[in-house]
Amino acid sequence: MLTKKRISEISKLHLKKYREELHQSIVEGTKSVLDLLNSDFPVHEVFGTENWYNSHAIPHLDKKQFTVVTSKEMERISCLRSPQEVMAIVSFPIYTLTDIPDKLPLLVLDDIRDPGNLGTIIRTAEWFGFQYIVCSANCVELTNPKTLQATMGSFCRVKVIYTDLVEFFQNTQRPRRVIGTFLEGRAISEIAFQPDDILVIGNESMGISESISSFINLKVHIPAVSGSHAESLNASVATAILLYNFRDRVVK
Amino acid sequence: MLTKKRISEISKLHLKKYREELHQSIVEGTKSVLDLLNSDFPVHEVFGTENWYNSHAIPHLDKKQFTVVTSKEMERISCLRSPQEVMAIVSFPIYTLTDIPDKLPLLVLDDIRDPGNLGTIIRTAEWFGFQYIVCSANCVELTNPKTLQATMGSFCRVKVIYTDLVEFFQNTQRPRRVIGTFLEGRAISEIAFQPDDILVIGNESMGISESISSFINLKVHIPAVSGSHAESLNASVATAILLYNFRDRVVK
Known about the structure:
2 copies of one chain form a homodimer.
Chain A: H1 4-11, H2 16-22, E1 24-28, H3 30-37, E2 43-48, H4 50-55, E3 66-68, H5 71-77, E4 86-91, E5 106-109, H6 115-127, E6 132-136, H7 145-151, E7 159-163, H8 165-170, E8 178-187, E9 198-201, H9 210-213, E10 218-221, H10 235-249
Parallel strand pairs in A: 2-3, 5-6, 5-9, 6-7, 8-9, 8-10
Antiparallel strand pairs in A: 1-4, 2-4
Helix pairs in contact in A: 6-7, 6-10
């Protein structure tokens, strides 16, 4: 049973302001919560139905950390229109650029605004072995519940670092290659990739911003079939095709 | 100025029941509405702000077809949380399997449930030159405003046909190849594609259904990097990588 006060405390995390202030967020759904409980993230509390608790025997999870709630209560604390049977409150570690080991391929996101796109990109990045993503400061927040949900648990394993991209590129050691997608550029299937390539994806409608363009030393594009009237690909789709090509042809 | 009655009539199209009954839907946003006005779709009425009308000189659009609304009115008739400056009411033509010319590559969707995924798949299909998509009857509806929005206008050009997939495959002439994505299967980069291949994508969580599996004669998969803990790719991402590979290596 949740008190009114507790419901209102939890619901604060529906707002970006409080998520940022507390470095906490809400993670919902069985897959994501189970991934979370298997991770090093500090989980403060798990809320779920009696039914969920009984059907998931989880060694690390004792009744102290778990609060049984009714479906009605779940509706009040969930961020989702169709709440799931379980959710958790978790603190997010803050990573910085110095946490990134050298010689790893990097994915850089310049102003991705849609939480579904960011989440899908994180999920795809994990699939193709990108352990770190560098985001411009104006990318949508990782801790947005919609972002977290779209990662399908990958947020527990892929490390996302928010930073000023101009500074990041100024401090990136040459001659590391920076590859960006542009409407002009070489067809992606022609490119041979290096293990420490940096791959840059731009904003959903504006592409890669001008201030970043000057750091790109290889422009690539994903060719449309001739005569197609589609103007562009979705940002998470373009990222997926780029990462697929990287993984398919990176020099080992 | 919209009357209460008119607002309530338009708002009926927020519900699937009325969209299906009337074969009509609401299309929102400048890009989609402009694509629509350039298409053969029967557009019944366009609603937009004065500002939008004045900044878009559209030859086919006279004031008779266009109703100026205030932002407040737009909020009441829009399906979006953040309404755009323009929306249109349109009838959807119904295509059938007999409309599909022979010898074209086909994309088949088995139970795609998320409107964002379906819309993104339609957008990607157009990019890679797939003019027809065959959907199982339980796929999310094309006329869902979220689907339409995610297509970014491609719904005007890609033809989507809903049908019983078992019947469809029973009636498909051999020896046409049917390729499906499975967790097991040959790595997609090894596959050479034929111009009339049929590519099948399954449901977001269940994959390709059992009743359809028996029609698949080539199973492929998109390899994850070894050691990745990601369990799967998003359905629209997997489709995009499949269509990219088709277009990259189809025999001409």
